[in-house]
Specification:
The complex is a heterodimer of chains A (615) and B (307). Chain A has 615 residues and is mostly beta strands. In chain A, the strands form seven sheets. In chain A, strands 12-11-10-14-19-16-17 form a seven-stranded mixed sheet, with no helix packed on it. Chain A has a six-stranded mixed sheet with strand order 25-24-27-32-29-30, with no helix packed on it. Chain A is built from eight helices and 34 strands. Chain A is 10% helix and 32% strand. In chain A, strand 20 (345-351) and strand 21 form a beta hairpin. Chain B has helices spanning 6-30, 41-48, 68-75, 281-289, and strands at 93-106, 114-124, 128-139, 145-159, 162-175, 178-193, 197-206, 211-218, 221-222, 227-238, 250-262, 268-279, 295-306. Chain B has a twelve-stranded antiparallel β-barrel with strand order 1-2-3-4-5-6-7-8-10-11-12-13. In chain B, a hairpin with a 4-residue loop joins strand 7 and strand 8 (211-218). In chain B, helix 1 (6-30) packs antiparallel against helix 2 (41-48). Classes of the chains: A mainly beta (615), B alpha+beta (307).
């Protein structure tokens, strides 16, 4: 299944074979990037051996970025290591203190570190081209900023596709006040995806050959399987497939990059390496889970153990007990679990498209393991993902139907009457797509977008387990500054999956103007996903208060990354309290690189024309 | 905000400048490292500007050594020249696809076996591309004969699934020492039709003013994740009689192919298949009158590959 034959050829060579000169010459011909110096060096060390540093300790910390050969899932790969490992070290900070981090770039290319979810001066945000010029090869950049929040976050490169090569790690900020979350022991869990292919080749394949990595497509051979799984008759299955073909869409297009090339990692370890997390029975164990993947959504569960979710995106939430939750790229969740006995429990993170999984074990001591659950059948998109709701679903929406009410509002303008407060509860349930189909860069599948806060996502919640949805998230305490927004605009998430062009409102970043926020304003963005994929949308520098349908406006949780599902209408309110320029983008790395990215400028006033990003 | 007239606006800016400048200096002199002790900049500004939103409750994070005014000036300007672009979303890509590279075994005695190929590729961005298509055949045994067609096109993505293409075609044919070639202008529409049919429709106007039209349609029927049956049809039309090319007005010829490929990789698949090609209508009559075989069946084997 792995496509990069070059690497697989190399990894089957034993050390002795490698030393033989003829092999050296021949591999040298085929593998120009492999340094022959390897043969004389000790075997590369394994990924996942990372430490912990405290960046608010006096003197600060040093991070060293290097191209390292590491064993990933037991096979040698060329990674970007931070202090010798992928993931990089867990960085701890203390709220109220100042973080001091010297980043030494020992790569042969420019790099950067973005502190994901952290509120800081714009020039410390680490996005080359927006917050600073980047860190040139061989140079050191010093990050220094006050810590004004707490919780579980992460950090990663914002340069090119470096994140795919292991350039990420977890960030934990200890609260200044006593932590409302009680726990006896804590573990960092960094989920990620790894490929032995060069990331630029992955992007090129996505750009030139549709569905390159999807080996779970509808075929003649799996008609029977689909009939059995769905209970549909042969003619119903064929009818359904014809309907998808007529639309030129693939209902199995759940993930662009799959287990066909990816090795899925938990703390840098492949499933068979079984990273183990120690806890004694009865202890309250806090798992700080971050999805540092480039393209992979995970469904996380611990068979036999209920999880209490206490934090989302670093922000405390009212505890919610669940059996499984979906974590998108760039989200974090903190959960509390307690071992009832001294058995081992499997921490199972299955990819959304079911093409693989990461896995670890929670146990009272090393060397234990529990059953690894069987993988589920891959999900298929449904008509609901095109905005076609079932009749009862529509009724569940209290007859709210404001189609066309505000969908043709002009984008990026002052919108509603100035100073007029927008409603904070009972927002419109669905809106019809306007006449603008966004040109050739967007295939608008959903003609109606609607609230999907109760929908856990494709393939989740169908097997009797409790699953987390956004509708269950409530801020633990009302965050400061919860006032109703006075301006709003609609933002369409658009894409042409056939040509792999991604953007907003049919435009890539390079074709776009900056989105302007007025400093101090409360702003509402209604995100409307026209595409058939889920997109984790991330705003730098400011919180997004996620509308979850709460009765009390103060209950809406703050998020740095929100999943917008196919055909979903998702609303976030933002306090534009961070002057400067910021990135706003889909956190699927290859979507971002294909143009699903905007520069946000938090400006004094919205007068004058918008600024072109490239002018 | 747009209702604000320019004069009060200027005063507001002035007021904001004054409001911010003082604390900023004070801060520089006392060398305060943290923003935590800064006064509420935004609040003071809001007192002067009734139309401005209320100050944020969270005091702004300002880079060390910069005033909030400087930050606003930065925010309202294009990126500095020493900043790289945050992402190269308008990068150029190149792609080459050999859909057919095959040996065709004739089933009748009159026709020679031959090598056939059909390839296309492009270089360009998401919307504008240089697109080339090349196909041809050359006899493997028997008389030295063959022909090629090369289309060189500017291609523009006009809808999500369709490229509009315009350019030129060079075609040549050789047969027992005779060599003929011609240039034509091309207009083409290539893309994915509903039900996932790959279509390529090309209209040619030759240098002699003759108009011909070719439709190519193919469909990938997936048997397994890697085994694909591809039916393909190609139909030629002439808008007038073209005696020197032995074509009669109307539909001229049809090629029906069936290929079964196995995708060892997405970009590399060996296959075998069958082709039935025949002449139609007036063109068929012309061929029969000159004693040529108008109906041919080939067995094929080859490779489909992309890079």
């Amino acid at each position: 299944m792995k496509d990069d034959m070059m690497y697989s050829a190399a990894k089957t060579l034993s050390r002795r074979e490698f030393l033989c000169t003829t092999c050296l010459v021949s591999t040298g011909l085929f593998l120009p990037s492999f340094r022959p110096i390897w043969a004389a060096q000790p075997a590369p060390k394994s990924a996942g051996e990372f430490g912990e540093l405290n960046a608010t300790d006096p003197g600060g910390i040093d991070l060293y970025l290097e191209h390292n050969d590491l064993l990933i899932g037991g096979k040698p790969g060329r990674a970007i290591a931070i202090n010798g490992s992928i993931p990089g070290p867990v960085i701890r900070m203390q709220e109220g203190k100042e973080a001091l981090i010297r980043v030494h770039n020992r790569l042969d290319e420019s790099t950067s570190i973005h502190w994901h979810g952290i509120l800081l001066p714009f020039n410390m945000d680490g996005v080359p081209g927006i917050s600073f010029p980047g860190i040139p090869a061989g140079e050191t950049f010093t990050y220094r900023y006050p810590i004004r929040q707490n919780g579980t976050y992460w950090y990663h490169s914002h340069t090119g596709l470096q994140e795919q090569l292991g350039h990420y790690g977890q960030l934990i900020i200890e609260p200044a006040e006593p932590d409302p979350v009680r726990y006896d022991v804590e573990h960092s869990i960094v989920l990620s995806d790894w490929t032995f292919e060069k990331p630029h080749r992955v992007l090129r394949k996505l750009k030139t050959m549709e569905g390159y990595y999807n080996f779970q497509r509808p075929t003649l051979a799996n008609i029977d399987d689909q009939m059995k799984a769905t209970g549909m008759s042969l003619s119903e299955v064929l009818e359904k497939r014809l309907a998808w073909n007529r639309m030129r869409m693939d209902p199995t297009d759940i993930a662009d990059v799959t287990g066909a090339t990816y090795t899925y990692l938990m703390n840098g370890k492949a499933a068979h390496e079984n990273p183990t997390f120690i806890a004694k029975p009865g202890q309250r164990v806090r798992l700080r889970i971050v999805n540092a993947s480039t393209m992979t959504f995970y469904d996380v569960r611990i068979p036999g153990l209920p999880m209490t979710v206490v934090q989302a995106d670093g922000q405390n939430i009212k505890p919610v007990e669940t059996d499984e939750f979906r974590i998108s790229v760039a989200e974090t969740y903190d959960v509390i679990v307690t071992l009832p006995d001294s058995r081992a429990y499997t921490l199972f993170a299955e990819t959304m498209d079911r093409s693989g999984y990461a896995r670890g074990t929670l146990a009272p001591r090393q060397g234990m393991s529990a059953d690894v659950p069987e993988q589920r059948r891959r999900p298929m998109l449904t008509m609901a993902d095109m905005g076609m709701m079932m009749h009862d679903e529509m009724q569940g929406m209290n007859g709210e139907d404001h189609e066309g009410m505000h969908h043709d509002m002009p984008h990026h303008t002052s919108g509603d009457g100035h100073g007029q407060e927008l409603p904070t509860t009972n927002l419109v349930q669905r809106i019809k797509h306007g006449p603008d189909q966004h040109g050739p860069a967007g295939i608008t599948m959903a003609q109606t977008a609607y609230r999907r806060l109760d929908y856990p996502g494709a393939g989740l919640g169908e097997d009797g387990r409790r699953v987390l949805t956004y509708s269950r998230l409530r801020a633990l305490e009302e965050p400061y500054g919860r006032r109703p927004p006075t301006r709003q605009f609609d933002l369409h998430l658009t894409g042409n999956m056939h040509k792999y062009i991604w953007g907003f409102d049919g435009k890539k970043w390079s074709q776009s103007d900056m989105i302007r926020f007025q400093y101090g304003e409360r702003l509402r963005i209604n995100m409307i996903n026209d595409t058939m994929m889920s997109h984790p949308i991330h705003l730098h520098g400011m919180w997004m208060d996620l509308y979850v349908g709460a009765e009390d406006y103060g209950d809406n949780p703050r998020k740095h990354t929100v999943i917008v599902q196919p055909a979903e209408l998702l609303t976030v309110d933002i306090t534009a309290d961070a002057p400067g320029q910021w990135a706003f983008h889909c956190h699927l790395l290859y979507h971002m690189e294909a143009g699903m990215f905007r520069t946000v400028a938090v400006v004094r006033s919205l007068e004058g024309g918008p600024i072109n990003v490239k002018s | 905000m747009s209702s604000l007239n320019p004069r009060p606006r200027k005063m507001v800016v002035l007021a904001m400048l004054l409001a911010f400048a003082a604390p900023a200096w004070a801060q520089n002199e006392s060398d305060m490292p943290s923003t935590a002790d800064r006064p509420m900049h935004g609040e003071s500004a809001a007192q002067h500007d009734e139309s401005a939103p209320p100050a944020p409750e969270f005091e702004p994070a300002i880079p060390e050594g910069m005033t909030i005014e400087e930050v606003f000036n930065f925010a309202e300007s294009p990126p500095p020249s020493n900043f790289p672009e945050p992402l190269p979303d308008d990068k150029l890509y190149a792609f080459t696809l050999f859909e057919q590279l095959e040996y065709r075994v004739a089933t009748d005695d009159k026709t020679a076996d031959h090598l056939g190929w059909e390839a296309q590729g492009w270089i360009g961005g998401d919307f504008n591309k240089f697109w080339w298509k090349n196909e041809g055949e050359a006899a493997f045994d028997g008389p030295d004969e063959g022909g090629t067609e090369t289309d060189l096109l500017y291609s523009r993505l006009i809808t999500p699934f369709w490229d509009f293409q315009v350019g030129a075609q060079y075609a040549n044919e050789w047969r027992e020492g005779n060599y003929e070639d011609r240039w034509s202008g091309v207009i083409a529409l290539q893309g994915l039709a509903p039900y996932k049919f790959e279509l390529d429709n090309s209209l040619y106007i030759s240098e002699d003013g003759d108009i011909t039209f070719v439709i190519e349609a193919e469909y990938d029927l997936r048997i397994t994740q890697r085994l694909v049956l591809q039916p393909r049809a190609e139909m030629g039309f002439a808008f007038q009689d073209i005696p020197e090319r032995s074509l009669g007005a109307g539909m001229t010829d049809v090629k029906l192919d069936l290929r079964l490929r196995y995708e060892i990789k997405r970009g590399f698949a060996p296959y075998f298949g069958v082709r039935s090609q025949f002449l139609v209508g007036e063109t068929d009559n012309i061929a029969e009158a000159s004693g040529e075989d108008s109906d041919q069946l080939f067995f094929l084997a080859g490779f489909r590959f992309a890079f």
